[in-house]
């Protein structure tokens, strides 16, 4: 009987120890994930078509937090523990950046950095100018793929090249669209001017977004790690043969 009691006591002790170790491992894993998400990378899914053709709904990205340093928006829930940025680095023209929507910081946006503090930005007949100088823009053809353009007709595509050499493609869905010609915007100090690559279908600094404070920047979009067709669930593994966009996997973002 004594041996049975000892065995039972050891089993109970072992069970309690095993549960404690399991809980400890789970807690450590959660802390590690939180640190990685706060300091290094944050996953992000594309919510709209404003960055077509560069990014599509159904794309899943890694956003590097260290690229622009850390603000309170780098922390979970945007905890207001400090002001400004720590280890901050300035974004460059042409970066694709995730930021907090200035009127409602609970909402994430993703656009391209077009204007830096002090820049004068204007759209004229669909062409972008920075500080009075037209940005190089060349029509490179049309795209007739609804998955890329959201349109059931061919859409003109242009290659735009920033003064620093960064080049990317933009869509021109509607010639003479509402944002094709704008007033001149002067970017305030500590702010940035952001525009979507889908020029006629983007809510950005030309409209309700306005100038984006440096503090609101979350990180730089770096790589597409997964992509499925817009209406598909990434968890529907059995549908991947028809919904997975294999050509987009692990693409770096220009």
UniProtKB/TrEMBL annotation:
Active site: 50, 111
Broadest EC class assigned to this enzyme: hydrolase
Membrane topology: Single-pass type II membrane protein
Domain Peptidase S26: 20-226
Reactions mediated catalytically: Cleavage of hydrophobic, N-terminal signal or leader sequences from secreted and periplasmic proteins
CDD domains tied to this protein: S26_SPase_I (cd06530)
Pfam short name (any one): Peptidase_S26
UniProt superkingdom: Bacteria
One term under GO cellular component: membrane
EC number: 3.4.21.89
GO biological process, one term: signal peptide processing
Keyword terms, alphabetized: Hydrolase, Protease
Intracellular or extracellular location(s): Membrane
Gene3D superfamilies cross-referenced by the UniProt entry: Umud Fragment, subunit A
One MF term in the entry's GO annotations: signal peptidase activity
Main location: membrane
Family, similarity comment: Belongs to the peptidase S26 family.
Official protein name in the record: Signal peptidase I
């Amino acid at each position: 009987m004594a041996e049975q009691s000892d065995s039972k006591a050891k089993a109970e002790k072992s069970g309690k120890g095993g549960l404690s170790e399991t809980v400890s491992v789970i807690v450590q894993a959660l802390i590690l994930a939180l640190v990685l998400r706060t300091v290094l990378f944050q996953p992000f899914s594309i919510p709209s078509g404003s960055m077509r053709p560069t990014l599509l709904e159904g794309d899943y990205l890694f956003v590097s937090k260290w690229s622009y340093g850390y603000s309170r928006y780098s922390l979970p829930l945007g905890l207001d523990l400090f002001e400004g940025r720590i280890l901050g680095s300035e974004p460059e023209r042409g970066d694709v950046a995730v930021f907090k929507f200035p009127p409602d910081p609970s909402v994430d946006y993703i656009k391209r950095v077009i204007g830096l503090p002090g820049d004068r930005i204007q759209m004229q007949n669909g062409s972008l100018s920075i500080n009075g100088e037209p940005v190089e823009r060349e029509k490179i053809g049309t795209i007739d793929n609804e998955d890329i353009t959201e349109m059931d007709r061919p859409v003109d595509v242009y290659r735009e090249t920033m003064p620093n050499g960064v080049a990317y493609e933009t869509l021109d869905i509607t010639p003479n669209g509402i944002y094709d010609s704008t007033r001149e915007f002067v970017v305030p100090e500590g702010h940035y001017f952001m525009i979507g690559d889908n020029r006629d279908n983007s809510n950005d600094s030309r409209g309700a977004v306005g100038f984006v404070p440096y503090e609101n920047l979350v990180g730089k979009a770096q790589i597409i790690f997964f992509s499925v067709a817009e209406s598909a669930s990434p968890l529907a593994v059995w549908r991947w043969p028809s919904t997975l966009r294999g050509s987009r996997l692990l693409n770096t973002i220009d």
